[in-house]
Input
Amino acid sequence: MLEVSNLSVSYGGLRALTDVSLAVSEGQFVTVVGPNGAGKSTLFKTISGVVRPTSGTITFQGQSLLALSAAERAHLGIAHVPEGRQVFKTLSVLENLEMGAYPKAGRVNWNRSLDRIHALFPILAERANQMAGTLSGGEQQMVAIGRGLACAPKLLMLDEPSMGLAPAVTDTIFERISQIHADGVTILLVEQRVAEALELSDHGYVLETGHVVLEGPYDTLMADDRVRKSYLGLTDE
Output
């Protein structure tokens, strides 16, 4: 479904990504993990069209994305739930969800998508007319994910959905993400909670200083000493 090949991105002469390649097949759950500053968010912004690469290719369902704007990419079925939630704080919960339904598939499937969002996050139905900026962090994250689902996406990209949330709230968010995947949505996740993220995944990539340094299925990554020591705090006895 998604193919990123030899992607490089520079900011002001500094390399944020260098020859990054990854693939996401239809129906997969793929996770990208790594330390702060590794380039994970830059990768997502480049896929969604916010940032332009200096070299490399990105294709989605066989179509090159590099000549398409961010809005055009959204119409293809790519939804990007950004780091830090970034809800429209002065709009209501319902209005935020409606903003996500702007792409054609979102408008066509609006009623079905709204029912699905409310089934996943019942609190959003209760808070439909409340300003999004007055919600808790966890509720705002639910709005952000719901807004992504409102476009009836083929690929849902989630950037650090657990950021700044209490552990119990994070557990709920991860449960809902797993349910979204079980319902047939292809997911690409960036996440700091490495163990939980990889456990949900079919395949994972470890990104460090703009390079993919390791990739593989859950068992392979969890058995790797670099992952165990650097990200899980585990050492062999």
